[in-house]
């Protein structure tokens, strides 16, 4: 199970690092990084997100209780929508709106799942909040919020796998 989590995390980490290097800075959101890719290579975004979703899903479902399984299901299905509708930069387009709603649903559901399974991981939000308040830096707030969501889910999965080995 740990291998599935790692195989889910690695493509996302590589994609993120390459996009930051390509842009020379952190994007406002991870989704915006798709615009750093040439048009004919933007499918890479969808593949990376789908790898992330479909490799971590069996682990997250198995680690969830019956009561919390629906929450991670909402998070992962929403992330699949995010991966499916990233290629629109027109804020009036329906695909852009679906993408934004799905992103908020994914983030919210993932953190509710964290709250219900291993709530101390919500403390990962303290550095995010501290930087926003103390430095008054909001330009990349969305990107770093996404990173907190991804990190907390991956850490929770690994922790729950290890704690269930007994």
Task: Please describe what this structure looks like.
With 166 residues, this protein is an all-alpha fold. It has one domain. 71% of the residues lie in helices and 0% in strands. It contains six helices and no strands. It is globular. The two termini are 15 Å apart.
Could you name the key traits of this structure?
mainly alpha
Summarize the structure.
Helix content is 71%, strand content 0%.
- What is the typical, i.e. mean, pLDDT? 91
Number of domains: 1
**Ends: how far apart?**
15 Å
Number of helices: 6
Q: How would you sum up the global shape?
A: globular
Helix % is over 70%
Task: Please count the beta strands (DSSP E, at least 2 residues each).
Answer: 0
Summarize the helices and strands and which ones pair or pack.
Layout: H1 2-23, H2 43-63, H3 69-84, H4 94-118, H5 125-135, H6 141-163
Helix pairs in contact: 1-2, 2-3, 2-6, 3-4, 4-6
